[in-house]
Design a protein that fits this description.
- The protein is α/β, with parallel strands linked by helices.
- It has one domain: Alpha-Beta Barrel (TIM Barrel).
- Helices cover about 45% and strands about 15% of the residues.
- The chain has eleven helices and eight strands.
- It has an eight-stranded parallel beta barrel, surrounded by seven helices.
- Strand 7, helix 9 and strand 8 form a beta-alpha-beta unit.
- The two termini are about 20 Å apart.
Length: about 240
Amino acid sequence: MDDDDPRSHIALALDVPDLASARALIEQTREHVGAFKVGLELYTAVGPAAVDAVHDAGASCFLDLKLHDIPATMGRTVARAASMGVAYLTVHCAAGRESLHQACMHTGGTRLLAVTVLTSLDAPALRAIGLAGEPREAADRLASLAWHVGLRGFVTSAHECASLRANLGKEAFLVTPGIRPAGAEVGDQKRVMTPADAIAAGADLLVLGRPIRDAAEPGRAAAEIERQVGLALSQ
């Protein structure tokens, strides 16, 4: 990652139903985006061809499968993803210490990102699944577990960035979904933040989807995000 290049701080979620749509979105935005995120929707539809489409465009692939399974399966799946050359791969902190340890043993050149608390969850939703306290407290606990196993990358709401940065230090690589330009609709996200505020809170990589994907001109929307991130980095 080039810390001074705003593009390297932006990942665009390819939350589209087919490969043709993914390739079109990549082509429209590739000048302004450092990585493209292949999530469950697209990967379920077309499989590794989605990863190939990102690599064919000369971009980094962020494979967002949020792995949460028994240790042996975690280890083998991480090894398979790493063999595809993806830059980032997500695993769930809640998979537990041994599963995370096995994941760390098979990364190759892939950076593992441990998902703490989904940005669609708030305190009442956490209580409903048995996690006490505010999202920040849950994120801190889960990140600490993953940190002691050896993970250094984390997916968290920008609202938890400052706390994680204070607890884990500069070595932590913080990835923040739920990024929305000022005035944009939040959709099903509960904990969102603007690009500038997320950078100021300590985020390293911002994940955007709908504000770019659903724009009338995705390329222009991506360029505006790049501009906002550049201004935030300069400050």
